[in-house]
């Protein structure tokens, strides 16, 4: 067992939920703070559906792609700032206070957006929401971690991840529910104010993190909370380890208040924790998760599904699988360990991205041909200008298929109208506009503008589903869990904020580059790049991420001080005392790297 702190008997999952009658106070703490995760997921997921109706109400948004991108991305930009500010506020004013501030930002953002009279007000509201998302993304799991028994800490922090994915799934359902309601997008965006009010009320009735209280010299309050969280047999040990941790910090720096970037860099324990924590957050985004979550309808269309309704319905499936994966994580996180779950997750992600790469390569290289007869079936003015000029040139302009039609350069965008006899047969290359689309549909044909008809479309859906199934339980939740427990108490807020900020910066970079990459190098090459980054992520996890399963938070710091390179992560580890010689020095084979 890692660190020899606890023995796992396979009942952690049952023990977590048995708290509902044995110690409901712990579950109350976890789920109250976890509502921040629900808001995080909802506000990042709801905009995909709301934007369709915002474009209908505001012509300026409909005409300007950059304005649509700004409305979407301002939440991510706000989250970068919110995560950075949250790291400071959690250390200065407390974890609970930071959650309350995040709730206010969620509420204010929802009200501003729901009452927007123009795109500028929408952008302001998205910034408010983003600030709340950034603060909640690092503060909620930190609060849960510090208020949870070590034995089931991973499972309880995983509830925050489940509520994030559950919030995204709820956003898709809310979008569907309000599609025919007056105000449509106003209801979609305004609903987020309700859980913010609920969490604000719940958190007012809950205490501050006991470990933060102890750091601030409020020992009696901290001990009273710990006695409600831990059993009588465990509480004295936890209090003793907490005292030792704070005393060591005071001895080391002479003050328990000063925290600087220089101190973080100079302290080997913190530096090692930051490498693991920040690296995991960055790789969580670089393996491409938000290309799937933000653009899943687009990806489904790229795979050959023409209908918007079909694409939205299938994207709901991926969102549901993401939420299901979070439940799986709750069961396995304290059973298999953080590192093993990360490795299994990344191996599956790599295989899934390999499937997607192969499917999209076949889709683009074996798309239906463009038929001159099928194109001539429609009015000549509807023919794609690039195809017309190519056909009239000497030599006929070479072979044209659906892929070349959709990528045709010129004054007009072009679309592919599939054959009425079968979508895989040669079709027509026409100008892309609503009139032509309706004419194509009027003859019972399918109209394609993003992807081409393909017999491999369902394999793409399978690849997306496998990607989510493998990603969600491991890379989806474990980075947040590791960051909530890997840093010394003194630096936990600052380091957690730095890691969350890195996550959101990476999120913004990937989300903003995905569509550009698919247009520049193709969808298959884009997924191949994500696959290569996933291989790099696997190597990083094997070398740089320690196992923290079952360790009390204060014991994690001692483990980082020993800093072992253990590639055989699946093997049980001896008690820390067994790794020292008679004089208390580390043995050579486990010496720090």
UniProtKB/TrEMBL annotation:
Record keywords, A-Z: Membrane, Transmembrane, Transmembrane helix, Transport
Domain Major facilitator superfamily (MFS) profile: 29-549
Designated name of the protein: Major facilitator superfamily (MFS) profile domain-containing protein
Segments traversing the membrane: 29-54, 66-88, 100-117, 123-144, 156-178, 184-206, 274-296, 311-334, 341-360, 456-482, 494-515, 527-545
Pfam families referenced in this protein's UniProt entry, alphabetically: Sugar_tr (PF00083)
Keyword Acetylation part of the UniProt annotation: no
Domain of life: Eukaryota
Predominant cellular place of this UniProt entry's protein: membrane
Family as reported in the entry's similarity comment: Belongs to the major facilitator superfamily. Sugar transporter (TC 2.A.1.1) family.
